[in-house]
Automatic annotation (TrEMBL):
It is a single-pass membrane protein. GO terms for biological process: inflammatory response; innate immune response; toll-like receptor signaling pathway. The keyword Transmembrane helix applies. The keyword Cell inner membrane does not apply. Keywords: Immunity, Inflammatory response, Innate immunity, Leucine-rich repeat, Membrane, Receptor, Signal, Transmembrane, Transmembrane helix. This is Toll-like receptor 22. PANTHER family: LOW QUALITY PROTEIN: TOLL-LIKE RECEPTOR 13-RELATED, TOLL-LIKE RECEPTOR. InterPro entries: Cys-rich_flank_reg_C, Leu-rich_rpt, LRR_dom_sf, TIR_dom, Toll_tir_struct_dom_sf. Residues 277-341 form the TIR domain.
Amino acid sequence: QDVFSGMPNLENLGLDANIILFTDDQLKFPPFKDLKHLTVLSLHSQRRGIGQIPSNLLQGLSSLEMFYVGNTNLAHLNPDTFKFSPQLWFLDLSKNALSEDHSIPAELFHPISRLTKLLISRTQLRSLNFLLNANLSRLSTLKATGNEIDLINKTLIQSLPRLEVLDLQKNTFTCDCDNEFFIDWAKNSNSTQVVYLNKYMCSYPSSLRGMSLSAFNTESCTLNIDFICFLCSSIVVFLTLLSSFVWHFLRFQVVYAYYLFLAFLYDNKKKQSGSTFQYDAFISYNAQDEPWVMEELIPKLEGEQSWRLCLHHRDFEPGRPIIDNIVDGIYSSRKTICLIT
């Protein structure tokens, strides 16, 4: 517990490639509590791994600025890990297994708001969304190579306003419109250098596997409002001209087609209603021929042939429009007899 008690002015401590294990029992007395001036601590590449960093491991290291804990078999980080080291500006977590959800909680970074460089390469990460609420407004360098990251969204980039260097090589990017913002931003950003962008390769979909991410055509994802407005206005103009032409030269045919269509609908309605014929024939004639109809035609058909005829003076419903009476009379009769003289 007092292994470093005689070195209060120690500033740089490297314990790489050792066999150091930290358990809660062993950390009843924090090992670095007397190193108040320590600025650099490296625990990189422990042969048996650290496992999990206890929440009080860094107790006493109020001046700590750089912390290396890569390749130590870390699987989870306690949210209170850095609460004793508010001056930390460099953090290396590379080569650990941090793929599980909440392995890196956003609260982990709240005490170290001065962090400017973060290395999380080869940590099996599938997403960088833990940075959304990390409040890393000063982060300038982010290196996350060799992970399984497939998507970088706009919100993530906006949460890192001072980002200057971004390295995401050897990740499993998806080449579709979900990455449209990142691709355009990586190509055109004047404040952030995306390292070796031309080496970022598509992993999904399978048809684009192996293609450079920067070669994906993002224009196909953009809705061209100007073109749509032009297309709509052109269609409106064309339809206006076409309807004017049709009405001027074919208006009688159009009117005829309209009434023919109405008759078709009426006929279907009558057929679906299952109504039976009330008359054998509907008689259509000119008023000047009425004497002949009354004296010759009706006695012949109704008297001798026993037909049931529909006659306007006898069978039309009083008070109804004449057109409605005629239509009902026609559709209520098996045949229509049109008298032409």
